Amino acid sequence: MMYNERVARLLTTLDDIEPQIWRRVEVPLAMSLKGLHDVIQAVMLFEDYHLFEFEADGRFYDVPDPAEDFGRKTYAAKNIRIRTLIDRGITTFAYTYDFGDNWRHTIVVEAVEDADPAYEYPRFLEGENRAPPEDVGGTFGFADFLEAMSKPRHPQHRELVQWYGSRFDPSDISVDLINQRIAKLARRRTLGKAGFARSQNQQH
Q1: In Å, how far are 84, 113, 119, 197, 203 from 190, measured between CA atoms?
Q2: Cβ–Cβ < 8 Å for 5, 26
Q3: What is the C-alpha to C-alpha distance for residues 9 and 24, in angstroms, rounded to an integer?
Q4: Pairing of strands 74-76, 59-62
Q5: Residue 149: its pLDDT value, please?
Q6: What is the pLDDT of residue 2?
Q7: Would strands 123-128 and 22-28 be described as parallel, antiparallel, or unpaired?
Q8: At what angle do helices 157-164 and 138-150 cross, to 10 degrees?
């Protein structure tokens, strides 16, 4: 039985930064929040070095670590699906990545539609402005970084270019690289679904 999959169109915006850094993606409703974390990492070009957490309707979802108990209950991000949040009427929720730099994002569910069989999901649609590099020191560190990067005569310019590994163009979101990273996630998902379908067929 092939039913038409449903997808959510999500707008993810990095909080407290101007001009706004945002990405628009389409993800399957059956995707877990852990899967959505992977998608955000891919489109923001983060490296998945740090912990993350979603907050929706007063509940927190992460990768539970018995050694790290912040004194509040958290749920496993891999066990909750985007569909579940939407079914609860949640249309806006939060995602925080790297509690040191504290990159807080607001995620808005813009639409829920039938998937287009011509595409593999998740799918990157569009976005603006490059996200901060890893470990740049939060919003203030990023502001200093941008300032130094934009001025070749800035005393820290050369040192930061070396640290970052290249020049930093705040308006270039590297669409090709984003699409490459998203395609890898989509491929993995398609292969996983095919494997699951095969195992179902073998049982019948």
Answers
A1: 21, 19, 11, 11, 20
A2: no
A3: 7
A4: parallel
A5: 95
A6: 46
A7: antiparallel
A8: 110
Architecture, CATH, for domain 6-131+173-198 = Roll (3.10)
Instruction: Supply the angle between the helices 175-203 and 33-44 in degrees, to the nearest 10.
Output: 150
Residue 196: predicted pLDDT: 79
The per-residue pLDDT for 143 is: 96
Q: What is the pLDDT of residues 89-138, one digit of tens each?
A: 999 999 999 999 999 999 999 999 999 999 999 999 999 999 999 999 99
DSSP string, 107-152: EEEEEEEEPPTTS-SSEEEEEESPPPPTTS-HHHHHHHHHHHHH-T
* Structural contact between residues 178 and 38, judged by C-beta atoms closer than 8 angstroms: no
Q: What is the pLDDT of residues 9-39, one digit of tens each?
A: 999 999 999 999 999 999 999 999 999 999 9
All structural domains of the chain with their residue ranges:
6-131+173-198
Residue-wise pLDDT tens digits, 56-72: 999 999 998 766 666 77
Tokens of 186: 């989509």
Cα separation of 12 and 93, whole Å?
10
Scan for tokens 């800035």, then name that residue. 154
Spatial separation of the C-alpha atoms in residues 15 and 85, rounded to whole Å: 21
State how far the Cα of 201 lies from the Cα of 151, in Å rounded to an integer.
61
C-alpha to C-alpha distance for 125 and 26, rounded to whole angstroms? 7
